[in-house]
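Friendly challenge for the regulars: who can give me the structure tokens for this chain first? No prize, just bragging rights.
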Amino acid sequence: MTLLRYSLRSIAGVKVRFALTTLAVIVGVALTVGVLISTDGLRASLNDLSGKIYEKYDFTVRAASDVGDRNEGVPLLPPELADEIASTDGVEAVAGLAQEFNVVAIDGDGNAIEPGVGRQLGFGWPESEVLSTIYVYDDGISRQPVGPDEFAIDHFTGRENGFIIGQRYDVATPGGTFDFELVGYLYFIDPETRVTLQIVAWDMPTARQLLHDGGGYDLIHGKLSPGASFEEVVAAIGGRLGPDIEVISQQENINESNQEFASNINLLRNLLLAFAVIVLIISGFITYNTFTLVMGQRIRELGLLRVLGAERRQIAQVVAVEALLVGIVATILGLGLGIGVAFGIRGALDSSGAHLPDSDLIIGGWTIVAAVVIGIGVTMVTATWPALQARRVTPMVALADDPEIDPFNRRRALIVGSAVGVVGLILLLVGLLAGLSTSQIVIPLGVGALLMLLGVNIVAPALARPMSLILGWPADRLFSINGRLARLNAARNPRRTATTASALMIGLAMVSLVTVLGTSFKQTLNDQLKDSVEADWLVCSGGCNNAEGALS
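First reply, four minutes later:
Bragging rights claimed.
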């Protein structure tokens, strides 16, 4: 209890510094927790959406394929195959699926509607109601399209882009742009579920003609009769299927969909966690610098404790307890703030046009473990070296004229810092010049950049004195006594000066990182667009989005 009371009083003595240190750790914890909460909730909601999409389909017949996107470029199934499957014992209903991406509706002003971050889908209205996942929107005037002159559009896209039921609009399809009458709004799964799709639908014969040039189906979904088993039906229709056609179960459909969702979510999670890791690295540096500075200022105090009988172990425990208290506070507050960050991430995705389904707030066990490990772990690890330094305090050290816990060794700092920096530089060169893939390049670049920062941080005290004398010369001349005192004070304790400058160095490094990444992404996209268009000029409907000069 005496040790805890002393640690609390020590923190209260420099409460502003410890508060800022705690805030840095809180931000790192909150970002990590927010990313995990938001992605866990999103994963659960998308998995639930998968169940809703396939809950009506007991089995699906499709072209066998091990590579590529199953939604594009797969061979079509002949229409007569649907009739053969429907006549099989154990099959209650069958519905073919005809769809095509990049089918774009054009509004009343002649402008193609923008897809945002989603995709634009042309769809054939299922001919079996029991196997349909799209429905007429209940507004009193919408109806299902019938015949080659009518179409429907999902109610989110239609309302947001000013599509009026009863008017005619152009729709760009794989076979060309045609004029249709809008006869209704539709919805997918349920009226409140919004997915990242803009759906345009026709009746099935019209859709097959427009999307597949009169060809067959992309998929054939089926519903089993009561009491029939999937295995029995597969065995019964197996003879009618060629070697390039397969039958999969409802659960296989759900698993494949969940896997696809998971890969996209993991990509988003890893991207967001990368920023959280950057913040945690900054937090670690700030925590280390804070405890190092505080220990340097409390040398005489710690020496007095040794005079009063405190052991070296107890001196180290004082620092450890202070770090533990900071970590506990940061963990609790960071966990609470992380919930707000999760809502912020969701709001940012929605505002970007992602239109993700509603998700529950899920705080899993691993999220809490991550908060504890990061909040307490980062603080305790970064305070370990200052705690070990505090053990070296003796009464004789404390009574010295200019006491230091660990006298600075310029030669050692130059050797160690240079070695760490060279290793970091080598990893950076490997990442930049080895021709690695995008996923492989992240590790050498990230570790290399971190080692470069560590190397500079270690070498900085060796350079702080001469740099302070050189850079402080103008202040010495311009501000007389005040300038001279500032110059000499900065040069007097190079470790303290370097430690203070490290926080600014890391902050500027992070700003440079974001700036370089943003500029690089922009230039890469511009180069890709430039290389993808070889035409000298373009003819656009409704303008070319200020593309003038983009191809120069």
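Residues 546-552 have pLDDT under 50 and may be disordered. Residues 408-552 form one domain. Your move, everyone else.
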